[in-house]
């Protein structure tokens, strides 16, 4: 019974940390794109914005999963590692976004929230997932 209670406590802590990192991902995408992201997705039904946000959330989720999966035997160290790699993933995704913005015409953030579907969203989403895979691979 103690193992179950201990496991539930750890799952709660990792789950809470994961949710915080996902919220930070939402804030980051919102900062990188003009307008209010929530309004663009839920009220305007903007597909570009939803693909961009979805890729960031999947990327962060992948990093958190990998970090938990390969966690240290020490719970505190594992939790700290998950937070550190999750934050690193967010920073690296933002850097990749800014690099793509530099090497492409126009303002990437504005392009990605246009109401008409734009192929740039798939490039940016792929970049998010690639960065996530790279960070996840570095954890093991």
Features:
elongated; 140 residues; mainly alpha
What's the structural domain tally?
Answer: 1
Class by SSE composition: mainly alpha
Distance between the termini: 31 Å
Report low-confidence residues grouped into runs of 5 or more: none
What string gives the helices and strands in order?
HHHHHH
Report helical residue fraction: over 70%
Number of E-type strands = 0
- What amount of the residues lies in strands? under 5%
Number of helices: 6
The Rg value, from CA coordinates, equals: 17 Å
Q: How confident overall, as mean pLDDT?
A: 94
Shape: elongated
Task: Tell me the major beta sheet.
Answer: none
Notes on the protein architecture:
This protein is an all-alpha fold and 140 residues long. It has one domain (2-139). The chain contains 6 helices and no strands. Helix 4 runs antiparallel to helix 6 (120-139). The two termini are 31 Å apart. The model has no long low-confidence stretch (mean pLDDT 94).
């Amino acid at each position: 019974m103690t193992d179950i209670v201990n496991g539930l406590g750890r799952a709660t802590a990792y789950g809470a940390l994961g949710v915080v990192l996902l919220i930070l991902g939402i804030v980051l995408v919102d900062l990188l794109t003009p307008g209010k992201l929530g309004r663009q997705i839920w009220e305007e039904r903007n597909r570009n914005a939803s693909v961009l946000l979805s890729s960031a959330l999947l990327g962060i989720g992948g990093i958190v999963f990998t970090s938990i999966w390969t966690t240290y035997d020490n719970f505190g160290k594992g939790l700290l590692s998950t937070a550190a790699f999750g934050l690193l993933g967010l920073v690296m995704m933002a850097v990749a976004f800014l690099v793509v913005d530099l090497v492409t015409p126009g303002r990437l953030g504005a392009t990605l929230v246009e109401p008409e579907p734009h192929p740039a969203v798939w490039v940016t989403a792929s970049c998010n997932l690639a960065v996530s895979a790279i960070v996840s691979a570095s954890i093991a």
